Amino acid sequence: MSRRSASLGIRLLACLILVLLARATESRATLTTATPGGTAASATRPFDVSTAQFPVVTIAGSRYLYGNLTRIGASLVRTPSIRLALRIINACPRAKAYGFISTRGSGAGVVAWMPTNPLECFGTTGGGPSIDPCLQSFRTRTSPRYYALIAATGRQTCADLSTQAPGGVSARTTRGVPGLPAQSNIVVKCQIWRSQGLMDYVAPYRNSLPASKPAFWIHDYYVATGVDERLAGVPTCWGVNFTF
Q1: Which of 32, 124, 154, 201 counts the highest number of beta carbons within 10 A?
Q2: CB-facing half-sphere around the CA of 144: CA atoms within 13 A
Q3: CA–CA separation, 2 vs 120, rounded Å?
């Protein structure tokens, strides 16, 4: 695995963790687990191994029920990190994964391994052909700075939703396109490499979000940003890409 792939994989995990932590935190998670019969086992009440119908491994004196996620997944504690792992595993069909539950009810977890970088399970980077048409994460250049996330079901929707996230790079057009005159003040909201070169998706600035606004495709050559390459803090318009 290259250093670049490893770095992108780590960024993917960090991005998804941010999403999951919006709903809960590890410190607030209640360590309760449903037994196969549907009842709840608390962190202090041991499982009934005789009725659990799962094999057992002993690790440093501690006993754990284990099984593939098809059988044991519904019984796992849903902490943010385990939710994250389950989502990654679900997206990676070649992953080999097992869930583990302490017979004392004192812990549970997931172990998985796969032959490729987990990032590849979500598509390719930089807006190329992708299983997932849109999963973008980036850090804005504006103040206050934010970590932004965009996920969508299609390419154009992905580009459209970039106009609803904070950030972007302010610029002025040097040539007009239909509906957008030359010398217009705009914000570059996303960029994508196409056959004709680097294209910008631009929109006017709004004081608050969400907000209705027009948006336009324009060749990057006709947008005065001071650079002739991809802009830092601006996501790709679709595909899977992480630029924290």
Answers
A1: 201
A2: 3
A3: 13
Closest to 66 (Cα-Cα) out of 114, 37, 33, 108: 108
Q: DSSP states of the chain as a string?
A: --HHHHHHHHHHHHHHHHHHHTT--GGG----EE-TTS-EE-SSSPP-HHHH---EEEETTEEEEEEEHHHHGGGS---HHHHHHHHHHHH-TT-EEEEEEETTSS-EEEEEE-SS-GGGGG--BTT-S-SSSEEEEEE-SSSS--EEEEE-SSHHHHHHHHTTSS--EEEEESS-BTTB-TT-EEEEEEEEEETTEEEEEEE---SSSS-----EEEEGGGEESS-SSPPTT--BSSEEEEE-
CA-to-CA dists, residue 49 to 43, 68, 78, 101, angstroms: 15, 17, 21, 11
Q: In what order do the strands lie in the sheet with 147-151?
A: 147-151, 134-139, 239-243
Rounded to 5°, angle at Cα 132 from 129 and 89: 125
Say which amino acid occupies 58. Answer: T
Tell me the average confidence (pLDDT) per consecutive run of 10 residues in the chain, 244 residues long.
49 50 38 36 39 75 81 72 81 83 77 78 53 80 86 88 94 96 97 95 94 96 92 90 72
Query: Are 17 and 84 in contact, with CB atoms under 8 Å apart?
Result: yes
> Rounded distance, CA 112 to CA 127, Å?
28
